[in-house]
Input
Amino acid sequence: MYLDVHAHFAQEGYDIPLEWERIARAGVTRVILAGDTLEHSRMHQGIAAQYEGAYFTAGVHPSEAASFTAETLAGVRALCADQKCVAVGEVGLDYHWETPERHVQQRVFSQQLELAHALGLPVQIHSRDCCADMLAMLREHRALLADGFLMHCYSHGAASLDDFAQLGAYFSFGGVACFKNARKVWESVQACPAERILSETDSPYLSPFRGEKNTPANIPVIVARLAALRGEETDELAARIARNAAALFHKLG
Output
């Protein structure tokens, strides 16, 4: 049984019925569709309602933080009541670009962490070019992380991985682990605690096949690569990932 804990379908040009058949043929039984805006979270809710094995998260990506309002937060809260909404996310910090301003991203991130805690849900975290501030915020808000959190597409390196793990983090890795020049990611995959590793695609981005649109159907390729990096059997790692996902996402069927 294979799982993709982080993918995007909303407005990404997929022929969803055909794509879902492709995913099923690949042996991928669970896909979590990650929200990055309120609109996309609602679209993913609709997809999850139609397909067995499809789940979703609700949240607002840091790049959209400038437009986040009390009404947005109320909308995310309402989506989280859905039985197939397994987490708040993807939320966090992204300092790759100059906007939105960092203090705005941090405020919106804090609000969504508070919401997740109030609802007893885990959090899917986006974290890019912000390692020190992310660690500082997670330490400051540690009391809000009791229901667990995922560092999606983890990119901060093996040296920082233990700092996040001590806070209770899970770590998901995707197609980047298949790239020829991704030594930093390879080292993180190798350093990741066995009980905290998960698989994702971040579809339609970061395909293991350069130049192609990514799909959750690529998860078996990704898990095989993760297993090779860790010196493990693919089937055993896939089974462990399934157990880890069930431990983090308690609403995952």
Q: What stands out?
A: The chain has a mean pLDDT of 97. Residues 102-119 form the longest helix (18 residues). DSSP finds nine helices and eight strands in the chain.
